[in-house]
Amino acid sequence: MEREDVNKMTTYMAACEEEIGKAIIGQKNVIHEIMLAILADGNVLLEGVPGLGKTQLVKTISKVLDLSFSRIQFTPDLMPADVTGTNLIIKENDKNTFKFEQGPVFANIVLADEINRATPKTQAAMLEAMQEKTVTVGKSTYSLPTPYMVLATQNPIENEGTYPLPEAQLDRFIFKINMDFPTLDELKEIMEVTVTNTTPKLNAVLKGDDIIKMRKAIRDIPIAGPVQEYALKIVLATHPELEGASESVKKYLSAGASPRAAQAIFLTSKARAFLDGRYNVSFEDVDAVFLPALRHRVMAGFEAVSDGVDVDDILIAMAKEVTK
Q1: Running DSSP on this structure, what letter comes out for residue 40?
Q2: Domain final position from 179, 197, 217
Q3: Are strands 253-255 and 299-300 parallel, antiparallel or unpaired?
Q4: CA nearest 45: which of 164, 174, 145, 132?
Q5: pLDDT for the residue 1
Q6: Which CATH number goes with the domain that contains 305?
Q7: Domain that holds residue 48
Q8: Ranges assigned E (strand) in 76-120
Q9: Exposed (0-12), middle (13-18) or buried (19+): which is 24, by Cβ within 10 Å?
């Protein structure tokens, strides 16, 4: 991609975030991190209390990016076929034939609402879609639309009747993003948009082909050796069993991040540099993305739970001890 094209695309991405901000008040960091995940070809886990606009955010993104959108409400009685689709018997010319009926997972952006309310069997139906971008039913494998992305939500407060996502599935999310409660000024703006006749008009800024081009360009952005080493040191520092782990990590973490965490940091750091119009990844890019890339990939131990220590605080303190 030529320099002129890159500048044009970064301008479009900034316009996307501005357009999304018309319907989603506040949450600028959340919007920016989701855009990074989209450019890095990753899935996102959104966590926040009900009513923060998680569903509205995903719908708005699909409109601004001019992508097809599908919403799946995960419940305990949801079956895998309700997600992926199933083979139906169709009668044609006095003959019965099987025809595959696509499920809601066949869309560019799939909102998996309250994904932790479905049983592990149904949660597992999303694994192939999230990792391989395909769906296998019977002996046939079907490709999902491109670009493809799963945005899953879960409520951090209510755990009754839920099925926590297994580590293998959490690892398939490039980011876990926490949505915070809005400020007083943001609440006022939200009321102006939601309880009046004022409906923001959203314009499509990008198309799927543009996103695919940007993803290819991002992978060509180099990362200098010292920056690579810094990112990898952060990932290794999450492992309490390794020599040199900090005292807080040894005390509060029972398991560290996987190599996918390093891939997530590398790709989203490149995406952040791209959006900033740079052809190199900086230490600041790594510092900006390591937290959402790691917080769901490490396992807090008993001491952390009993002492009420947040995983984010552990990771931030850990990163400060890693030398650049």
Answers
A1: T
A2: 217
A3: antiparallel
A4: 174
A5: 60
A6: 1.10.8.80
A7: 1-217
A8: 85-92, 95-102, 109-113
A9: buried
Distances (CA, A) of 59 to 20, 23, 301, 323: 10, 10, 36, 41
Residue-wise pLDDT tens digits, 154-211: 888 777 778 888 888 899 999 999 988 888 888 888 887 777 777 778 888 888 888 9
How many other CB atoms are there within 10 angstroms of residue 156's CB atom? 11
Q: Which segment, 44-48, 65-69, 281-285, is predicted with the most confidence on average?
A: 281-285
Asked whether 119 and 82 are in contact (CB, 8 A), the reply is: no
Same domain, 91 and 7: yes
Omega before residue 147 within 30° of 0, cis = yes
Band (2; pLDDT cuts 50, 70, 90): low
Token duo for residue 133: 């971008």
Domain boundary among 217, 235, 270: 217
Q: What is the pLDDT of residues 278-318, one digit of tens each?
A: 889 999 999 999 999 999 999 988 998 888 889 999 999 99
Is 169 exposed, middle or buried (CB count within 10 Å of its CB: 0-12, 13-18, 19+)? buried
Residue 225's φ and ψ, nearest 5 degrees, are -55, -50
Query: pLDDT grade, residue 239 (50/70/90)?
Result: very high
Phi and psi angles of residue 151, each rounded to the nearest 5 degrees, phi first = -115, 110
What does 248-292 look like in DSSP terms, one character per residue?
HHHHHEEE---HHHHHHHHHHHHHHHHHTT-SS--HHHHHHHHHH
Q: What are phi and psi for residue 140, nearest 5 degrees?
A: -110, 140
10 and 79 in a single domain? The answer is yes
**Given this model, what pLDDT does residue 45 score?**
94
105 and 24 housed in the same domain: yes
pTM of the predicted protein model: 0.89
Asked if residue 294 lies in contact with residue 261, where contact means CB atoms within 8 angstroms, the answer is yes
3-state secondary structure of 296: coil
Count of domains for the chain: 2
